[in-house]
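## Example pair
The file below holds two records. Each record gives the amino-acid sequence first, followed by its structure token line.
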Amino acid sequence: MKANSGREEVSEMNNDEIKIIEAILNSSKVHYSDIANLIGKSRKTIAKYLDNIADYVEHFDVSLIRKRNVGIYFEGNISKLSESIQENNILKFNIPKQRSLDLLTELLITNKAITVQELADKFFISRSTLENNLKAVKGFLNKFGASLLTTKEGIVIVASEREKRRLMYELISLYWGDDYLNKEQKLQMKGAQDVSTNINVFFSPETLIKVLNALNQFKQISGLKMSDYEYQSLAIHLTIAIERIKRNEVIKFSSQNSVLEKNTLILIKVIEKEFGIKLPKDEKQYLNIHILTIQSSLTTSKQDEDKQLKNNNVSLFLTASLKQFDSTLIKNLTIHLIPALKRLSLGLTIRNPYTSKIKKYFTRAYNEVVDLGIKIKNAYGISLNDDELAYIALHIEAFNERNNKVMTVALVCSTGLGTARLLEQRIKKQFSNQIKISRVVSVQEIKERPVSEDLVISTINIKLPNVPLIVVSPFLDENGIRKINGVISKFNNCKTKPEAFMSLINPKYIFLNDKKITRNRVIKKLTDALYKDGFVRTGIGQAAIKRGEMASTAINIVAVPHAPIRYVNKSVIAIYIDKKKIEWQDKMVKIVFFLALNQEIKPHIEEIYSYFDNILEDKKLLKRISESNSVEEVIALLREGEC
């Protein structure tokens, strides 16, 4: 979907903002207190989220109204907004990105060179605008080993047939979304007209329907179990392959031919019968890779899983490579990596629809995974792209959250020990991994002894200066559970103050610029300054550039290059701000945070990353930082990340 041409680009909603939208839609009207109970954030953070929501809903011709003593509600026809939320399809209104996708599609389906002027005329844009859009196209192509070549005849994509098919698959995923199974149902019910016009340049709807029919036959005959993703991926790859074969665009398989799997032979037979064609030998080998990948991901029993874990060295590699881990993390990562490494060795990657969100919301986990990715490449000779790294980051984030600080609670009950113990048991049952009750006391005892706990839960309202307190029923009803959930959420998300993060910020290493500069020059400028004053060691710049080539460090208008720990003498964060924007792989950024961190910050790492995440999440704050005119202004704005 496209925005009106005069509108500013709108970023995607975060999870809390989606929850707020849903709450307003469900209740018609809410108040700040309702939202605070729902997401556990401060009034300041809620106001920031509401500003973002107000910008977002304008694109559905809906207004967000905030009236004192009345409430917060929507005005306008909310049907389209409600439908979008219900389908979990928060749309992005980003014209340059959409145009870049359309440009890439045009170049991909054109077998001959096309001039810049022809493209500009086709898309009704100027040559200069087109050239800017083509930068994004080049970045996208580079991720897949393809390139854009300019000749006297015009522009043409240089890519193998295999690379072109991967590009087509990615474009279909971007145009169509990830809900292929629903699309299958719609196609069977409605027929060919349901396919997007952006997609049918790659294949006819009739071909897709026949592929889906063939796959369903194959599943029945073979009994092969596939995940939704594997089924969807195979359907799209097969459809592209058949259309390309029809046009005489056949894959050339360079590696040695493998013995075809039994399931591959079944699928070949079904496809050939359905379409009345004979698949070329190399196409059969390509299909065999997909089947091998699906089969390698199958774990049929706990016994098979234990055998898989026992007979490999991946878990040993992980224990030697990770700085922090528990047995659950090692097990889960091993189970994930065994089929992933097999799949990647066969040349197949998977698309992760949540990569940008994972990089945005789990910054620490993603940075840890990039370091692990480098070790995987050195050990196994396999490179992991952004999507693969993001999947692994989810396991790291789960470990981090398992090891989050547990909230300590003093429980106050005035109605007797029996009631107090009942309430204690109910709290433990409901919040077993989130709350530790350190003591159960009377009203008199809580007043006599200083409170060191994070929270006091009481069955009666008492005055305790400067101590967080909530009042609940002795029987812990739904209202009490909601109150405690709100405090826990706020504790986990907002427990940090700026001090730990700001201690790493030095005015001397904040640079403001309004001239065109490259990514590598920015990193060199920052690392040279840090090296001169002894913060880092020689070679850090090249190491950071190499690390960045493995995985993009850009998130919206921000880039977060990360220095390998062995090059850091003293922890520091250097900042570079450029109003002109810096081309950072496939994105354009305005702010660069160069993280040079070592073991000395380990006791405060949760505080630092939690606070930094608050800054990265605040779109309006980042915009103000990017427009700063002085170092002092940047420092003042950075302190606003406190939630």
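Second record, same layout:
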Amino acid sequence: MALSTGVVASVVIFLGVNVSSARIDQPNVILIVCDDLNRLGSGVSGEKYISAVKTPHLDAFAETATVFTRAYANVSLCSPSRASLFTGVAPQHSQFYSNTVWWRNAQLAEAGTLMDAFRAAGYRVFGTGKIMHHFRKREWDAFGFQVDYGPMVWDGTNRVALGSIPEPFRSEGPIGGSFGPLKKSATNSEALLETQWVCRSAGINRPYRYENESNRDRTPDEKSAIWAKNKIDQLATDGTDSPFFFAIGFVRPHTPLHVPARWFDLYSPDSFSLPVQRKHDRDDTYLEQQFTTLHKGFYRYQQLISSYQTEEEGLRAWIQAYLASVSAVDACIGVVVDALKSQDLWQNTILIITSDHGYQLGQKEFLFKGALWEESMRIPLLVRVPGMPVEKNHIDTPVSLIDIYPTLVELCGLTLSSSNQVKRVGVSIEPLLNPGSQEKEERMALGVMQSDVVEPLDERWMDEPFLNQHWTLRTDRWRYIRYQDGSEELYDHQTDPHEWYNLAGDLAYMEQQKELAQQLRKVLSK
């Protein structure tokens, strides 16, 4: 199956997508989506602001792929980010901004998913792990393992944080307040009880066995990686000409940051540099003022550093666990990539590796996702299209997850129906993959986070209630943020890549601020 658009045999309409029901010479597609993986997973040394991070499989794949060094989530939260990725419907049109069930949103339900579109085109559709935030069986012809955030510690009655985590951070619970290597250790020195672990999928706790590194159960991500490998091996030898679409979702580095000890052993607490920070960096920002209670990112940061003797000690403990989790998921990605390389499928399979959003590791005294700053929004995006030359394989043009839908539609020869009423504003990145192509219009990445306020406070936009959220616009040079209450932030990435200096309100940048505000309004009106 060489890479080409093939020959159309017939046409069907399915969930608003007009596609051929049979084609020849269509490419296969594998889409790998990680959770909370920030740009440390880009595979590019220049993107690794903690240079000690070890991602050999992503690094090797980056040499064969096009790497988008300015790729962004459209929402820095799991469910709405994944919903926009897999439906191609932007959050401002679906008004889906929270972690609620995506298919209960009328716009998203009408749109259908990438899986629907590929199946209608004659593709076989497979998946495993965390794809959409909420699992729906009908999306898949075959599915491996549903999302599982384990292993987690079990005290005999409840899931809890690891006993070695100091308070008050430990009170954040088994998911948000727990990190550390998987190990067999005493939780009660008098009773000599061993640590018990559980995994949890579809609401059911299941025992997870860990004796030592060579005598243990596989983690949920490892199980998904092995299932994917076995499926790839099967697809390579089943003799079927039908192409496939295969989505693989890995949970790490989402919390709890528990992975096998060998990944922690790669990073002693003093072996890596901390993210560069500026003292009092949050003082000229406005996110904190948008919430009646302290935002989780600020709160988690305060809980962490107050649990240790020093701020640095707390950050090093957390970042060690994050780096270990990044290396663990890198190994799982390697299982999939190596399986694909070992088969003839490597020559006719599009492979995309990305994340649902970024994650801040203490920058601006913020430890979480869910902000509109660079490190919350920025993601790895590595794209390999067989037959397309990789001459300039680092692309700095801003792109976002919403662009993946139209890109795959174009690369795989799917055709959207002219009668389709679903609005999709993503722009294919196919021209950027072609070294000889030129684009006339400047690309921008739009991001949003949900506001707690129901009524808009900014009277200028009272007649446009869909703007009642917090927005960011990332251009090649600038990041502009406009919060629901009208407060603004402006950062010049040409001189301030860390977003340390908010230029909003500075007379020297007033015209630029006004221009970006107008551009935001224009983008939101599309």
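Notes on the second record: The first strand starts at residue 11 and ends at 14. The two ends are 38 Å apart (CA to CA).
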